[in-house]
Design brief:
binds cytidine-5'-monophosphate; Rossmann fold; alpha/beta; globular
Length: 219
Amino acid sequence: MSLTAKRDRKRILVTAGPTRENIDPVRFMSNHSTGVFGYAIASEAKKRGHVVTLVSGPTALERPKGVKFVAVESALDMMRSVMREAKNADCVIMAAAVADWRPRKAAKNKIKKGSASVKLELVKNPDILAELGKKKGNKVLVGFALETEDLIKNALKKLKAKNLDIVIANKLSKKSAVFGNNPAKIAILDRFGAKEEVRAGSKARMAQIILDKALAFNI
Ligand code: C5P
């Protein structure tokens, strides 16, 4: 039986994992995201009885059961899927580490390694969350800010610039401490100026706290 009464059931869209930006048919640029945080949020939301869609870049994780799963590769793929799926969502939680840039054009054939250096021209990817923020409506929008310095200041900047309700500030100190199945230390900031420092805990625990906060947000 579901924990959530039907009338309280929300449609929650979660994104997770990295994106891959192709350089040629065999090579790509990506990042260290493992998807653990986003998958933990999607699983927790499902456990509570909500209707969950998970748009995920490539990860090694098992797909959470009972969740609509949309597999994507590049940031542009993710953008298309998120824009489509977000139309019906009450809440969007963007935990994906979307690549900021992509090669201007992926080479058609494998680039030969003969030359000593290769020039790669990168162009900016669209900011999916900022696009959602432009036509937000009644949706609750939650973003992540992963920073190495001035965490709170930068997180607040993102909250405003992207028109978010909530931003999860996640301090990046040592690579191993933030990516993957490691405890997370987060602060939750909202559009009304509330700031909650959360004691470090597992990502599954953080997922519960994030969902409590997001679902309490006028939806
Ligand atoms: O600006 P920054 O990349 O640090 O913002 C992080 C937040 O924005 C995350 O929630 C991430 O999923 C989202 N994002 C996005 N599209 C991008 C870059 C980031 O939706 N191109």
